[in-house]
Amino acid sequence: xxNGMYGEMFVGSMISAAFxxxxxxxxxxxxxxxxxxxxxxxxxxxxxxxxxxxxxxWKKVWDRINEKxxxxxPVHTINNAALVIMGLLCGEGDFEKSITTxxxxxxxxxxxxxxxxxxxxxxxxxxxxxxKWIKPLNNRIESYILGYNNSQISELxxxxxxxxxxxxxTSSTT
Length: 174
Hints:
The protein has 174 residues and is mainly alpha-helical.
């Protein structure tokens, strides 16, 4: 669906913005600037920003999200984006609080937690992530991608950085 694509644009731009600023509200605004202003996704994000500012308490924000967007499939972009924004804003920049706040909201919990973890991981940097969240991984990631089924997280991060740097250099010369 269109909102599924908008969700990818929204999240991708927020993660990118996190490399340039640690202001979560600004990051959300940058994400909004990359999707159609009149889309249902933009409406859900704006509603959640408004409710987070009005209530401050994630449970009250969740009630409003569930009331207005709870009828969507548990894996729909719109209701899950709202929970991501709730976690980011009500979590106050705290890695654990932000992730767990969003996950307690339900719906697509693994994706929502991973999205928030990605944004705050960029802001905080790997060395500043709480040890209890990274130590159990033992710097390993398992996947079903041939050749990358048991890789080191640090090596994948370095590879991603090199590719991003190369891409930026290529795009600046064209």
